[in-house]
Amino acid sequence: MNSIPLKDQTRNPITWVPTVYFAMGLPFVILSQTSTLMFKNMGISDTNITFWTSLIMLPWTLKFLWSPFLEMFRSKKYFVVLTQFVSGISFALVAVSLPLEGFFRYVIAVFVVVAFSGATHDVATDGIYLNALSAKQQAQYVGWQGAFYNAAKFLSAGAFVALAGLLEKSIGITNAWMVVFGIFAAIMILLSLLHTRTLPQGGTSAQVKTLDEVKTTMKEVLRSFITKKHIVYYLFFIILYRFAEGFAIKVVQLFLRADRSDGGLGLATDTIGLIIGVGGAGAFIIGSVLGGYAIAHYGLRKSLFALCLSFNIPFVAYALLAVFQPDNVAIISAAVIFEYFGYGFGFVGLTYFMMQQIAPGKYNMAHYAIASGIMNLGFMLPGLASGWLSDLIGYKSFFIFVLFATIPSLLITWFVPFTYHDDKKGVQEA
Questions:
Q1: Given CB 3.0 to 4.6 Å as the disulfide criterion, which of 27, 220, 255, 319 pairs with 118?
Q2: Helix axes 364-405, 407-414, angle to 10 degrees
Q3: What is the dihedral of CA 234, 130, 73, 235, to 10 degrees?
Q4: Which of 186, 207, 228 is where one domain is finished?
Q5: Minimal CA–CA distance to 267: which of 47, 415, 275?
Q6: Secondary structure letter of residue 5 according to DSSP
Q7: Which of 207, 223, 238 is the C-terminal boundary of a domain?
Q8: What is the mean pLDDT of the segment spanning 9-14?
């Protein structure tokens, strides 16, 4: 692991970890969730919404392709601040594009810019986290990292959706979403200004002057990644850890909204928003923080299987909801909150594993980006088939299938080898 610059050591992580990971989460959630409701209310077809809002998320999977360039130029802080500002300006452009005829194609074009900016922001932010914090600090703050990343979900998919709904009744749909995206723009620009002062440099890379040097460095990044100890096992591990989630997450909201006669729970849209956007996100945040402290206290090797259990077993809540179809909102809410708490508690295990067991080395930022990109791909692939499968066998059988889909994750976690020790002295070769 790279040595930590003295200037970076003097910055208390609590002053920048929460805000920078909130800034990481906001563009992702806006593009993947919040925008779909906006497009629906503005008359765009479901086919166009699902196709384009899925396609524009691709940069988060492919970000490892350009991550080596961030290892070469300027400081990681430079790229974080720059991409936050670019995302802020882009959200402002979305706001002014909404009243235009044919707004959809303009907004999607701007969203493509946000996606590349947001994915680049992820790479640089994780690079700062890996370089500016010791192994012990990474374990302590990984929960805060996940918590504030998902606080973005609470605000953009919960509070701001509720705000848009209220404004739609008074100033109209277009004006309501112009206001909301104006707020998103202001938040991202203010965060970029804040982080010019609070963010550590995260290490400075050597300048590259020729294309040959770029090619050589990229080849070295990939070579050093694929030759890591246990790398084949690790790739299967990060793909399978979220295997069951990949099936479930796309169908949960459809199940909650579907008519009871079709096997769903028949909840109103605003009720679903409150349950998931407020209760679920809050439970996830609490679970993430506690999961981080559990790793810091017990170590990753001792806690990883328990974290995996916490991540997967709560899917039983949806199976029970599908079987019994309760009409009590409190019971449904409790089940969803239980699942999101386990989701948050267990997800930090995968995040920290990639940081501690896969990323360490000369190109830790690029290697972490490759690992997280592959993780996202593993999450996306079962999601592509989830809707087809739930339509084919029904919600009850589908969520029972999800429970069986947790088995590969549990098995591969039980046997996963460790390359590095996770003791209080830091990350050391096992």
A1: 27
A2: 130
A3: 10
A4: 207
A5: 275
A6: P
A7: 207
A8: 70
> b/e per residue, 213-229, with b = 16+ CB within 10 A?
eeeebbeebbeebeebe
For residues 336 and 255, membership in a common domain is answered with: yes
* Rg value, the chain, Cα: 21
pLDDT in tens, 108-156: 999 999 999 999 998 888 778 877 777 777 777 777 777 788 778 777 8
Q: Which of 241, 225, 258 is nearest to 387 (CA)?
A: 258
Give the chain's end-to-end CA distance (angstroms, integer): 14
Torsion angle (degrees, nearest 10) of CA 30, 33, 34, 35: 80
In 10 A of CB 408, how many CB atoms?
Answer: 16
153 exposure class (CB count in 10 Å sphere: 0-12, 13-18, 19+): buried
Count CA within 13 A, CB hemisphere, residue 410.
13
- Measuring CA to CA, which residue among 32, 195, 184, 59 is closest to residue 119? 59
**Which is higher by pLDDT, 234 or 426?**
234
Q: How far is CA 428 from CA 129, 221, 418, 424, in A?
A: 18, 21, 11, 10
Same domain for 145 and 199, yes or no, is yes
| Overall number of domains in the chain | 2
> What domain range includes position 373?
215-430
Which of 77-91, 137-151, 201-215 is most confident?
77-91
CA–CA separation, 81 and 121 (whole Å):
8
How many Cβ atoms sit within 10 Å of the Cβ of residue 403?
Answer: 16
408-421 mean pLDDT: 90
Give 192's contacts (C-beta < 8 A, 6+ positions apart): 23, 81, 82, 84, 85, 88
Tell me how far apart the alpha carbons of residues 187 and 374 are, in angstroms, rounded to a whole number. 30
Answer yes or no: are the C-beta atoms of 186 and 88 closer than 8 Å.
yes
* Number of Cβ atoms within 10 Å of the Cβ of 201: 17
| Euclidean distance between CA atoms 105 and 103, whole angstroms | 6
Structure-block tokens of residue 343: 């989701």
